[in-house]
Amino acid sequence: MNIQIFGTAKSFDCKKAERWFKERRIKYQFVDLKKYGISRGELESVKNAVGLQSLIDEKHPYVSEISYLAYDADKFEKLFQEQERLKTPIVRNGKKATVGYCPEVWANWE
Questions:
Q1: For the chain, which ranges sit under pLDDT 50?
Q2: CA dist list (Å): 81 to 20, 30, 39, 41, 86
Q3: Of 23, 33, 34, 69, which residue has the fewest beta carbons closer than 10 angstroms?
Q4: Do 33 and 86 contact (CB within 8 A), yes or no?
Q5: Model's pTM, two decimal places?
Q6: CB 90 within 8 A of CB 38
Q7: Taking the alpha carbons of 81, 82, 85, 86 in that order, is the dihedral positive or negative?
């Protein structure tokens, strides 16, 4: 497995995801979105796996700015430009991905 966790260091769900993988001795790479961000290709891969709507953090104060955009391409571009609006943690395992804390899905990854 080649696990990548994208998130922020202060996010409670990101810490829970890291702890879940540590407890099972599964190696992972943590990428801080505030420091390094996520590449367009990686974000596109995650979008293809989980859908665009799953990537949007509904608790973000300015979520309505994305909701009002008519086209998915515009929404994707806005999310890529302003990555603090992404729901975290984003966990990738090759072509598979999850958004949020999903241990029931991670347990089935081999």
A1: none
A2: 30, 20, 10, 13, 10
A3: 23
A4: yes
A5: 0.90
A6: yes
A7: positive
Ordered structural domains, the chain, with CATH = 3-106 (3.40.30.10)
Question: DSSP string covering the chain, please?
Answer: --EEEEE-TT-HHHHHHHHHHHHTT--EEEEETTTT---HHHHHHHHHHH-HHHHB-TTSTTHHHHHT-SSHHHHHHHHHH-GGGB-S-EEEETTEEEES--HHHHTT--
- Token digits of residue 45: 């891969």
pLDDT at 86 (0 to 100): 93
> Residue 45: CA atoms inside 13 Å, Cβ hemisphere, count?
14
Angle at 18 between CA 51 and CA 64, to 5 degrees: 35
